[in-house]
Design goal:
Elements (H helix, E strand, L loop, with lengths): L5 H24 L6 H6 L6 H12 L2 H14 L5 H8 L1 H15 L6 H6 L2 H30 L7 H50 L2 H10 L18 H18 L1 H9 L3 H32 L17 H9 L6 H33 L8 H29 L1 H27 L5 H25 L67 H20 L23 H6 L13 H33 L1
Helix pairs in contact: 1-9, 1-15, 3-9, 3-13, 3-15, 4-13, 4-15, 5-11, 5-13, 6-11, 6-13, 8-9, 8-15, 8-16, 8-17, 9-13, 9-15, 9-16, 10-13, 11-12, 11-17, 12-13, 15-16, 17-18, 17-19, 18-19
């Protein structure tokens, strides 16, 4: 099914040309700088506004634009709390990690784990980050292609190929500046697309007030769900604190986010960018949730998935667009551009940050004397290879289906919280040592894998966390029977933080007690469980094996939990736990970094001087 006309196609093509144009512009503008600092960090010259917008739209991927309305459609208004979870996630980054990143100025944030603990910790965490980000980009690309196939006259394969070429080109050519400014432009399309769909749907059903009345009458006004049961997936507590912790790992220990924070002119600018990002996240999630409420009322009594009108639940929003805008040229193109822009933002950010990670964590250690120009060329080649890999991953998702979602969701759930706990131990707890950190990381990962695999194996407890009822009683024509009516499902929608998939519940007369208790802990809490497990085990094992002496710690690697003028000197001294006050003279890391920077400047100056005679003699010829 397609509703694409000439105006729609023009809007979509213009959006693509703008993205390519921005990449070409910065590629030409900065062609003489030839600096990794400029290519990956814009020489710390970016303003907080474009960086904040870029962070916000990167966080709100196409998965969210397409799935948050569907999640609301199936789970009710409790999904409004997702916006607050995005705001909660910014707090630790705003108060602690942003100044920390700006102090260290490390190309790869995982280098901190090497300096604080051991190189093996850095390598392991970096590999996991590379794997997860590649899979996540592939899934975002595939789902967008799948949804756009409903309204756009391209096959899923053609859309995936087009995406890989476009995003790889402008990211590799333009660097971080192109990524940030393309995100900024695309954010307008994203907001406009969601608002347009919401307004049109609201007008057709009789307004938001009427929609809210219907939601309440149908038992979908679930906003005030404060159930403290840890096995309940959708409540204020699970979303705000469980999901909020999962979101926090992106702001506090994700390469793409740290890279943008470091691209700002100062820590203050980066903090402003963080506030802007949280605001945009909350705004877009709230708009998408409203869209989901309106969509339920529009399709009330004739669910398109159960009636066989669509093949996948994530096609519900594009199908709605087809229905309500079939006589309005341009709006379908606007929505396609909005969803496509969200996906481009996610993939471009991933390619740029993964290029940095691979170059710094795996290439540079093997090539000690790598100069700036060669490093830039290598990073661009790495970016192209990542683009090809993402394209291949997207095709793989098509064939592996739910298995790919299960794998990525399990690994992300297993490593997200423990990784955040590892950064917390390294920065806040000066007693933790290498053995303690590794034990904490492994313990957090193990317990999360145990929970995730057990839940997938046994499935959900029958009758627990059911989706709200949907019907097809008002449908005029039911074209085909959907598998929705014939399968025992444990379904949730896919979001930035988690992906739940349809799994077969083991039908057995005797389920072990652990299957309906421990394994039913909400997946939203996995990150929180991994976080506290990592911290607790790290501390216990560190003290058991010989804790580090805080007085001998490098203060550059320490963040006091409490600091600032509102607290007395005694309180501030207590929460430093014996770590010396930070200064340029007291930090060995700073002294070595300053010395290395001077050596690099001298080396670059000598290279420039050696090139001058050659250039001069060439010009004379």
């Amino acid at each position: 099914m397609t509703s694409f006309g000439v105006v729609d196609a023009v809007i979509f093509v213009v959006m693509i040309l703008v993205a390519l144009g921005i990449g070409i512009f910065y590629g030409i503008k900065d062609r003489h700088k030839q600096s990794l600092n400029d290519y990956f960090y814009a020489e710390q010259s970016m303003s907080s506004i474009p960086v904040g917008i870029s962070l916000g739209v990167t966080f709100i991927s196409s998965i969210t634009i397409l799935s948050i309305p569907v999640l609301t459609y199936n789970r009710g208004s409790v999904v409004f709390w997702y916006g607050l979870a995005g705001v909660v996630a910014t707090f630790p980054a705003f108060f602690y990690f942003i100044p920390f990143f700006h102090r260290l100025q490390m190309p790869s944030i995982y280098r901190f784990l090497e300096l604080r603990f051991h190189v093996s910790v850095r390598k392991a965490c970096s590999l996991v980050a590379c794997f997860l980000m590649t899979c996540w980009m592939g899934i975002a690309s595939h789902l967008t292609s799948l949804a756009l196939n409903v309204v756009f006259p391209l096959t899923v394969t053609q859309s995936t190929l087009l995406t890989a070429v476009i995003v790889t080109f402008y990211t590799v050519v333009g660097g971080i500046k192109a990524v940030v400014w393309v995100d900024t432009v695309q954010s307008v399309l994203m907001v406009a697309g969601v608002i347009a769909v919401s307004i049109k749907t609201s007008n057709q059903i009789g307004g938001i007030g009427y929609a809210w009345e219907v939601m309440r009458e149908e038992g979908r006004d679930t906003f005030l769900t404060f159930d403290t049961d840890v096995t309940v997936n959708y409540s204020f507590w699970t979303i705000c604190f469980g999901l909020g912790t999962a979101y926090a790992q992106y702001y506090c220990c994700n390469q793409a986010f740290a890279q943008r924070f470091q691209a700002c002119r100062s820590a203050t600018q980066a903090r402003i960018a963080c506030v802007i990002s949280g605001t945009i996240t909350c705004l877009l999630v709230t708009l998408s949730t409203i869209c989901g409420c309106l969509m339920y009322v529009y399709f009330k009594g004739c669910d398109p998935y159960k009636s066989g009108a669509i093949e996948d639940k994530d096609q519900t929003v594009p199908y709605l667009v087809v229905k309500i805008f079939k006589d309005v040229p341009g709006i379908a193109g606007l929505f396609v551009s909005a969803a496509y822009s969200a996906m481009l933002s996610t993939v471009s950010s991933g390619i740029n940050s993964l290029s940095t990670l691979i170059l710094e964590d795996f290439v540079r250690p093997c090539m000690k004397k790598l100069n700036e120009k060669t490093a830039i060329r290598l990073s661009q080649l790495i970016g192209i290879l990542i683009g090809i890999t993402v394209m291949g991953t997207s095709f793989a998702v098509k064939y592996f289906g739910d298995l790919a979602f299960v794998l990525v969701n399990t690994i992300e759930s297993a490593f997200g919280g423990p990784l955040l706990g590892l950064f917390f131990c390294g920065a806040f707890l000066p007693w933790t040592n290498k053995i303690g950190s590794l034990a904490g990381l492994l313990s957090g990962v193990t317990i999360n894998l145990w929970l995730a695999i057990g839940n997938q194996f046994y499935g959900g407890t029958p009758g627990k966390n059911p989706t709200l009822p949907l019907s097809i009683e008002n449908c005029m024509n039911v074209t085909t029977a959907s598998p929705y009516n014939n399968i025992n499902e444990n379904m949730t929608m896919m979001t930035v933080a988690s992906i739940e998939v349809v799994t077969s519940t083991i039908q057995s007369s005797s389920r072990p007690l652990i299957a309906d208790t421990f394994y039913q802990v909400s997946y939203f809490y996995y990150s929180l469980i991994g976080l506290f497990t990592c911290i607790s085990v790290s501390l216990v094992v560190s003290f058991a094996t010989g804790r580090r002496d805080p007085s001998k710690s490098d203060p550059a690697f320490f963040i006091p939990l409490i600091s600032g003028g509102i607290f007395s000197q005694d309180i501030q001294r207590f929460f430093r736990f014996g770590v010396p006050e930070y200064s340029e003279s007291s930090s060995q890391y700073y002294r070595e970094k300053y010395s290395k920077k001077k050596d690099e400047q001298i080396s670059q100056y000598r290279e420039d001087q050696m090139e001058k005679p050659f250039i001069s003699s060439t010009s004379q010829l």
